[in-house]
Amino acid sequence: xxxxxxxxxxxxxxxxxxxxxxxxxxxxxxxxxxxxxxxxxxxxxxxxxxxxxxxxxxxxxxxxxxxxxxxxxxxxxxxxxxxxxxxxxxxxxxxxxxxxxxxxxxxxxxxxxxxxxxxxxxxxxxxxxxxxxxxxxxxxxxxxxxxxxxxxxxxxxxxxxxxxxxxxxxxxxxxxxxxxxxxxxxxxxxxxxxxxxxxxxxxxxxxxxxxxxxxxxxxxxxxxxxxxxxxxxxxxxxxxxxxxxxxxxxxxxxxxxxxxxxxxxxxxxxxxxxxxxxxxx
Amino acid sequence: xxxxxxxxxxxxxxxxxxxxxxxxxxxxxxxxxxxxxxxxxxxxxxxxxxxxxxxxxxxxxxxxxxxxxxxxxxxxxxxxxxxxxxxxxxxxxxxxxxxxxxxxxxxxxxxxxxxxxxxxxxxxxxxxxxxxxxxxxxxxxxxxxxxxxxxxxxxxxxxxxxxxxxxxxxxxxxxxxxxxxxxxxxxxxxxxxxxxxxxxxxxxxxxxxxxxxxxxxxxxxxxxxxxxxxxxxxxxxxxxxxxxxxxxxxxxxxxxxxxxx
Lengths: 281, 261
Hints:
The structure holds 2 protein chains of 2 kinds. By secondary structure, chain A is α+β, with helices and mostly antiparallel strands. Chain A is 52% helix and 9% strand.
């Protein structure tokens, strides 16, 4: 129709408008005649149906789904650490991950001293063991890291001290091993060494401290530099659990006791009222 | 029906169904249970549908008896296939789109001097315009036809040219459609009628007015009646009649009038 219209416009310019009008004017009539004739064709032959069937089947769409798996890479271990950087480090005592800040770096040895932000104590760590972000590791991997961390910390303690001081360290570690000797050692060198008798007194106080006053939390040393003791051991936790269970059972028992007491009072009043009535009658 | 009704509606008053017919209908019920069983029996005897027999003699006012029926079923072999109907509907839709597309162009065209369109209210004028004087006056002058070899639209009727049809307004289309259908009700189907009906349906705009719906339904019923009276498949009118029924039923959504294969 569009082509026909264009032709008509072109022909009109030449002056054959009558013929073009008549030719295109009959579009409706031709459509009608075509429609009427198609029914006769449909009645005559069944061959017309076959090509339609061929045209019917359409092309099947192929769904090509691309699965892109993104691999997450952990922080590069070759990162250069500087004093004042924030990081995550495994504490040698329990192998847990804590936030820390670097206070000094030794590039030659590949070690540094980290200050645990949440707990306030310091420890010497290998630069390769520090982490920029806490990784999402499996339990097995975590255990493996713990084991490695323990070994590395032992080596560090052996290397970092002079023979005389190392001797003292060995002696102290033997006596105060459960109290966390690695956390105490880094703080000793910066301060001046005290005289022997005073040192012995401090040692005695430490021995006395944990027993009577705080079963799971040793007291802070006023004379020496401030330090936070390690987290409590397992036995106090177990005791606390028992205490919780005991208090729960006691509360159950007491609620039963109070209920029984109330019921008894009520019954007693009823009996008294009944006896009075019977006595009057 | 009763079983369905019992299942659908909740039972407000459970009464055991009376299997035995020990109770006689003549005696009055002696207890409430008997009464309820009487009610059940009478209800089961009533038919679901009751039609009243009206005596025409007793009617005071004269009422119009309108018997509206659907399209007559096509004789065997006369009805078109569903695929053919779908093709016709799609082509008809394309024709309508083309007409709307080129309406402005054809409106601007001037008609020849011999083309004088009647007024909308002039029913006889439109009949003469569409069918020609020969068909209207039922004059058969073979001699004159031989004498005049050229086209004389005044006598043979004007075909539905686009330049003519494009100038019709919707009210005129509806009016002319009514005139042609009324003419068709009393007379036979002629080729000019088929062309004009096709053209008018192509120009009829959707959505239709209720009057237009009534007109096209009337047309479809008339076409089916004429088709039922045809003698053979080879009749030239069969295609046109099927086409009209198909357009009305399939395109204008009068599906109750459609042909069933």
